[in-house]
C-alpha cells in the first residue's frame, strides 16, 4: 500500500456557497436571544464540569459559524476545504462513544495472502465489525492512551467508513500511519493494494 500526499485548493464558488448558507430572514426577538443565552450558559457549565468534550463542542460551534450542514460530520481535518468531496461517512456516530469500549487489532489479510484490493479491504472491515471512520481516527489521535498497543510490524490502520473523492475522481480513505514513533493521519488510495503491514481496529470480543 502506498501512502499518497494530496495537495488541493477550495474553489471560489465553493467558498461563496458556504457564505450563502446562513441568511438572516427576520429580526431576532428578545425571547429567542434569551433562550440562546441560557443554552450557552448550560453549554459552558457542562464543558467546565467535564460532561461534554470541549474539542467536540469547539468543532461543532465552528461548523455553525462557517455555515456547514449540521447533519454532516465535523472533522478536525476537513478535506472539503481542499476541494475534496465526502462520498461516504456522513452517518458516523459520535466518536466519544469509543471511550467506553475496549478495542483490539485484527489482521486484514488471510493466511498466505500478500495483499488485497481496496474494495475487498472495505468488505472485510464490515465483516470484522471494524468499519470505523475519520472521526474515530481523529479521536484516537487526541486520546493516544486509549489506543491498544501497536503490534510489531503494523504501520497503518484504515478507517473505511469515511470515503473521500479527490479532485481527479480517485477515491481514498483516512488511515492512521505509524511514522516517527507516533500515529499520524493520512489518506490512502482505495485503488492501490493493501498489504500485511495494516490492521483493523474493532471492539474486543
- What is the average of the pLDDT values? 82
Poorly predicted regions are 1-25
Total tally of structural domains:
2
Compressed to H and E, one letter per element, the order equals EHHHEEEHHEEEEEE
Task: Tell me roughly what share of residues is in helical segments.
Answer: 25-40%
Query: What is the overall number of helices?
Result: 5
Chain-wise SSE layout:
Blueprint (H helix, E strand, L loop, with lengths): L2 E2 L7 H9 L9 H20 L4 H13 L18 E4 L14 E5 L7 E3 H10 L6 H9 L13 E3 L4 E3 L5 E9 L2 E8 L3 E3 L3 E5 L2
Antiparallel strand pairs: 1-8, 2-6, 3-10, 4-9, 5-7, 6-7, 7-8
What does this structure look like?
The two termini are 28 Å apart. The chain has two domains: 12-83, no CATH class; 86-203. With 205 residues, the protein is an alpha+beta fold. 22% of the residues are buried. It is built from five helices and ten strands, in the order βαααβββααββββββ. It has helices spanning 12-20, 30-49, 54-66, 118-127, 134-142; strands at residues 3-4, 85-88, 103-107, 115-117, 156-158, 163-165, 171-179, 182-189, 193-195, 199-203. Residues 1-25 have low confidence and may be disordered. 30% of the residues lie in helices and 22% in strands. The strands form three sheets. Strands 1, 2, 5, 6, 7 and 8 form a six-stranded antiparallel β-sheet that branches. A two-stranded antiparallel sheet has the order 3-10.
